[in-house]
Amino acid sequence: MKRVFPILAVGTAAFLGYGFYEALWVAPTDQLQGDVYRIIYYHVPSAWTAFVFFAVNFVASIVYLVRRNLKADAVAVSAAEVGLVFCSVVLVTGPIWARPVWGIWWTWDWRLTSTLVMWLIYISYLVLRRFSSSGQTPVLAAALAIFGGLDIPLVYFSIWFFRTQHPQPVVGDGGSIDPSMFQVWLINWGAFLCFGALVFWLRYRQALRLQEIEEAEALESLLEVRGA
Amino acid sequence: MSFRSGITRATLAKDIRLEWRSKDAINSMLFFALLVVVIFSFSFDPTAEDSRRIAGGLIWVAFLFAAVVALNQTWARELRNQVLDAYRVSPAPPNSLFVAKALGNFIFVGVLEGFMTPLFAVFYNLRPLGPGWELIPVALLGTWALVVNGTFFAAMSLRTRSREIMLPLLLFPISIPALLAMVRATSAILSGEESIGFWIALLVAYDVVFTMASLFLFETVFEAE
């Protein structure tokens, strides 16, 4: 890791820089909104990245419960934390854009509300991890992650008909986005995914180390009891 | 996922008998819900015609907070004298225990709702403009949604530090779709403005999904060491 990590870090930084350049200078200015719209190059790729990491968390939690492999638990906690950071970026950049364009910071629209609820669910996941005693944390957290994963479709379903102010998806069939803009989007998404994966990898390694320390401490205290 | 109804029945009967003799949960829930009614009445004019729009949210918030009081007691009671450990080593299937606890909480919260709904109607001058009987399926489905997840998360928060705080932190975010459905359905019935078909369907879906999830995962959480 010591050798590969700096290389990857430099590569990711260059990729992020390239994405930044593309977003601010290369992408055409929006006809209606002007330059304000450029924040979507951070907003939308962050949202997609957050979804990817939450999905990883869900799958890793199921794998943990089935296999009882602590590595899966390390993946789950790292993915939840990185996903939550990206989800926070979405929730912060959204209002920054909305203020000049809509005139308000926040509205209880279905996309905004469901993203906020998703954010709350993963906060409660991390709070549970913090508060439970170490030996049982992985099992309890995995159970909660599965509940959260099942809840998110219901959240989306329950508020889909809220009056919406959020721009409709402009990607896919009948999308109206300019191809050059879409390309910048993808570049930024790629850069964000690389950055997220890099941080995820670091956190994963750290989680594994923490598990080792815990095991060593547990063993030590057992030996002490036996020695006494 | 084995299940024995005899154990469920015995546990449920024991819990109801305990509650009947002590009335701990129901008294604290009633008092708590009453306090919420009084405090909310300060924030807006409760007799105004508009209040029926907010009343749905208010009623369910009161029931939700009150239910947490009962839910926190369910498993904590079994910690004394290591009853829970005894359950764990006994051959009784954990799901029978879970169903008994969930049904018990369902009955307690149901009794609370039975007492509080007339009080709400009196204090807030409520009279449903839509079909009033529809409140019954909403209440049944909504209460089950709260207690099935609540019982599960209460068992989960037993293993955490400061478990009394943990339960609402886990329960509230996950319950948001169900709460939304209950609140909107109740407001719709009170104001008689829209039909509640969609909300009932959502509550049924929520109940089915999370009852299954709880039954699947309860044993894992219960035996976690």
Describe the structure.
The complex is a heterodimer of chains A (228) and B (225). With 228 residues, chain A is mostly helical. Chain A has helices at residues 4-26, 40-67, 70-102, 110-131, 137-158, 179-227. The two termini of chain A are 41 Å apart. Chain B is 81% helix and 0% strand. Chain B has one domain. Chain B has eight helices and no strands. Chain B has helices at 5-22, 24-43, 51-79, 83-89, 94-123, 135-157, 163-191, 197-223. Chain B has 225 residues and is mostly helical. The model of chain B has no long low-confidence stretch (mean pLDDT 87). Classes of the chains: A mainly alpha (228), B mainly alpha (225). Chain A binds chain B through residues 65, 117, 120-121, 123-124, 127-128, 131-133, 135-136, 139-140, 143-144, 146-148, 150-151, 154-155, 157-159, 161, and chain B through 149, 152, 156, 159-162, 166, 169-170, 172-174, 176-177, 180-181, 198, 202, 205-206, 209-210, 213, 217, 220-221, 224-225.
Outline of the structure:
The complex is a heterodimer of chains A (228) and B (225). Chain A has 228 residues and is an all-alpha fold.
SSE order and pairing:
The complex is a heterodimer of chains A (228) and B (225).
Chain A: H1 4-26, H2 40-67, H3 70-102, H4 110-131, H5 137-158, H6 179-227
Chain B: H1 5-22, H2 24-43, H3 51-79, H4 83-89, H5 94-123, H6 135-157, H7 163-191, H8 197-223
Beta-strand content of chain B: under 5%
Domain count of chain A, please report it: 1
* Tally of distinct domains of chain B: 1
Structural class, from secondary structure content of chain B?
Answer: mainly alpha
Oligomer: heterodimer
